[in-house]
Amino acid sequence: MADRQMSGLTDTGGRVAAGADEQNPDVILSMEGIVKWFGDTCANDRVDFSLQRGEVHALLGENGAGKSTLMGVLAGVHRMDAGRILLDGQTVRITDPAAAKRLGIGMVFQHFMLVPSMNVTENVILSGAVKDPGGTGERRPGFLLPLAGTAKMIREFSDMYGLGVDPDARVGGLSVGEQQRVEILKVLCGRSRILVLDEPTAVLTPDEAEGLFHIIRRLVAQGDRSVVFITHKLKEVMAVCDRITVLRGGRNVAVCDKSATGMDELGRLMVGREVKLGRRVRGTIGGGTTAGGDGGTGGTTARGDTGGGRGRGGVGRQTGTPQPARGTPDALRLEGVRYADAKGVLRLDIDDLIVKPGEILGIAGVDGNGQSQLAALCTGAIAPQAGKVYVCGEDMWGGDPGEKRKPFGMVRAGAQLRFLRSGVSHIPEDRRALGLVPPMGIHENLVLRSIDSPAFASAWGWRLKHGEILRHAKALIEMYDIRPADALRPVEALSGGNQQKVVLAREMEAHPRLLVAAHPTRGVDIGATEFIHAQILAARESGCALLLISADLDEILALADRMAVMYEGRIMGYADPAWPDMGAISLMMAGKG
After folding, report:
1. Would the CA dihedral through 162, 166, 167, 170 be positive or negative?
2. Which stretches of 249-331 are assigned E, i.e. beta strand?
3. Is residue 369 part of a domain?
4. Measured on CA atoms in the order 65, 188, 210, 566, is the torsion positive or negative?
5. Domain encompassing residue 511
6. How many CB atoms lie within 10 A of CB 394?
7. Strands (E), 220-340
């Protein structure tokens, strides 16, 4: 490793680098000059990081910036190639996760490590966190599990920090937010004084995220615990953290206090340039020109009337509906749609919903209120038990009424092909499970929906044109800035943001008439978010209709021409994102509109 050139630390704006805190008695942890290589890639390039007692310290950066790798070194998941780690001023050697646990370091990973069939107590014991829950030093045979003592400890920590976890609850029956609290309990029961949370809100609803922030504040309130909060979300940094270390390209960029900086500066430090995620407006819908400028997210930037009443705080039916050319059919129309799941629970109950060519209709609401079923319905994954679904004027189920008689709305593959051939593209909410084949290469994932095309195959898809597939992939990799630019690399090796770009490239290059985008920037960093937003807006300008489903209200306010609020499968009402009445929107999200 010694022959490899490593660049030095950049200390932006005169801020103090982490290593300068070594003599500070408040510093519990110092990581100095950490270097970590993966093959020919330097993930951490002489990175410094320090953590003070009783603080929440954000480790901020884009996907692939080296955040998780650095904390993986601290947690014993990776072995560093150079550098040193100090706890309470003393150099320590962390060779594996067990060594990190013994030193009081616990990490909650982004992907939970739980056994769904076991209860909470059993999962905590399985983690190895609990050796002697009663603190008596009693030795017992390995086959006698400390169930009672561990359950008591879980209840104590749960009450102390407001976790609200039942030690007897089966993990498989818990919500995602509750499962994350179980992961936190595993760390607490291991007597960890340093907690590392890796992208902890990536799979949480806004309400669950706020609950997590409350728990974090309580964890550090007594000063005996410190939290490292790995994230790429600026709002979370400003909401819960005290200090911020910014990484970019595996290197330190800055260390600063939250009170001395703002989101605009942090965004610039993360990406290396100015980033704009505010509302982008235009004077006409469906035209080729854009009027106006960027406003703050959810701001009151004026824009031209597009065919509906636009007043401040306007909430009502079909507010601001665009007016396409006369005789142009709606890109999407739902009429009297009803859908119940396998348990008979009504998930969708929509009298009417329309998306017109060249508009973005945003669907807001707390996750779990029918948004997933709406996306599945509009892409042919499920069929309604009642009602009509029209895509560009075509009744998608009228030609095959037998589909509706299948139990629970299940459909055959041919039904989804009808939607594809009608010009429907889909950015699914779970890119790994629904949008990609992770072990396959980037080039293969980019042609999944068109593999039978004469451009890429002959003999009805049985003989692939590998050279054409590779050339197509290289062009899209450059166009959509997919990193690294290796078409043969398995897509599972990419960061979340680059995986999402693969899905985006494939679906956009189909030149859809209707794009159903479900949580398109969930778990994606600020740079990729800006890029994805730009592509969504470009699709709208080309005349594509977009159904934008997002639990991020700011995203809907930034992009949508109209917004509808869902609650328990129903459309509670519509609002104008340019002049949002947040009180009315909040009431609708709570089912009171």
Report:
1. negative
2. 251-257, 279-280, 294-295, 315-316
3. yes
4. positive
5. 329-433+503-593
6. 15
7. 226-231, 243-248, 251-257, 279-280, 294-295, 315-316, 332-340
Residue 427 sits in the same domain as residue 556: yes
CB 477 within 8 A of CB 489: no
Residue at which a domain ends, from 489, 512, 529: 489
What's the pLDDT tens digit per position in 59-72? Answer: 998 877 899 899 99
- Cα 46 from chain centroid? 29
Per-residue pLDDT of 500-529, as tens digits, reads 999 999 999 999 999 999 999 987 878 888
Antiparallel, parallel or unpaired: β 279-280 and 294-295: antiparallel
Q: How far apart are CA 110 and CA 116, in angstroms?
A: 16
Q: Which CATH number goes with the domain that contains 412? A: 3.40.50.300
Q: Report the length, in residues, of the chain.
A: 593
CB within 8 Å of 261: residues ≥ 6 apart: 244
pLDDT of residue 147: 87
Distance CA 453, CA 323 (A): 35
| 413 and 473 together in one domain | no
Which tokens hold the place of 108?
């909650």
Q: Quick one: 427 and 449 in the same domain?
A: no
Quick one: 446 and 585 in the same domain? Answer: no
Number of independent structural domains in the chain: 2
Q: How far apart are CA 26 and CA 223, in angstroms?
A: 10
* Structure letter (DSSP) for residue 17: P
